[in-house]
Write the structure tokens for this entry.
Amino acid sequence: MKRIKLVFILIFLIVSCLPIFNSQKVLALEFYANDIISNSDMQDYESMSLEGIIEFLDSHNGVLKNYRIKDYFGVEKSAAEIIYNAAQAYKINPKWILATLQKEQSLITNPSPSQYNLDWAMGYAVCDSCSVDDPRVQLFKGFGTQVDRATWRIRYYYENPEKFNFRVGKLSLVDNRDVLPYNQATANLYNYTPHIHGNYNFWLIWNRWFSKIYPDGTLVKKEGDTGVWLIEDGKRRPFWSKAALISRYDESRVIKISRNDLLRYEVGYPIKYPNYSLLSSLDGKIYLTVNNEKKQIESPEVFRMIGFNPEEVIEVTEDELAYYQEGRKITLNSLYPQGALLQDNKSGGVYYVEDGIKYSIWDKEIMQVNYPDYKLTPVSSEELNKYVTAATGVRFKDGSLIKLVDNSKVYVISNGQRRWIANETTFNQLSYKWSDVIVVSEKVASLHPMGQQLDLDFSNDSRMATNLNN
């Protein structure tokens, strides 16, 4: 049986980087000039396969879907091949190339660009004070050369940051605004395009096409921070303490995401207290919290009989209690109000019992994922027969990854449903780990009804709300 003791409850390990909860609505996404994209995003050169780039270009109906020309080395190739090869050669995300092609010359969506647009596709070597007729600039003319040299340049910025004006931690004036790049990727963008508006346009395109939408039940934290959030109902809920996190979830499942991907979500109600906390209302009622439910303890006698400690009770506001759903009252007849794992000592069957109801556990993996800190208690069949049997067995926690024994499809559990992760690109983009995938039987998988397919739709413009900071 799991109990959260006073010392653990009251020492709230509020992490230094965790945002203070604010009940006001937060915009889903804002442009922040100091942190445009992350290093991991810019250097994720395996984010798209050649086939993925071809499919992306086809879906946008621009000239590049059927475009063939000589690459930087003089070999005729398709636009998709030129983009892919440059990304692989310099280990830069092909999405950066695609977004820059659109930012500079709208080549992803324009079916009839001018020859100038194609010749100076990435805007490479084209500066405010120079002419494209300059022989030194002419060396970089042509789609293949533009893609290769621009991508090479981004890698060069990484390898030689001290040679350039924009650097991490160095304050610079850009279009009458102070800019202090927080990471090398952002410094690279300013070295490539030293203007706020140009980088704002890149940011718009990047987030319109390549944003990541995480399913409910995902644990995330911003790269470089320690604060953890739960994605739920399209919002990000902050954990206010270490205890609140680890009493509910496996901390190893936390996914690191970029600032932009985090800010896409409004801030939801915080998860303040550990699971199985004892909360007291202003009128003296005491509740046991179990996940999102509050279970009123019927009387002081029940409180004492179950063995709760008065020093563990935390007085909270009515607003805090109002967030929890009303659960069944805990009475003298309530059995295992905090939950227990019981095993039939004859059949070997395992059940999770809570408040007099027993739930079948059909797979040891479910037991290990959902109840890692519970001890298994052998009991008789007669003892188990005292409890009401639930209609369905215990399901995997949200955020779990599962696959069937004889099938390669991988699913993520979200709101109790299993959502098929449609392709490897989506799996990798969401930073899932193959080592976390649990192999289950058809019987166990069937506990989770099928939900909507999970596929990153890079062309969906409706996911983004934007606001330019002034």
Observations:
- The radius of gyration is 27 Å.
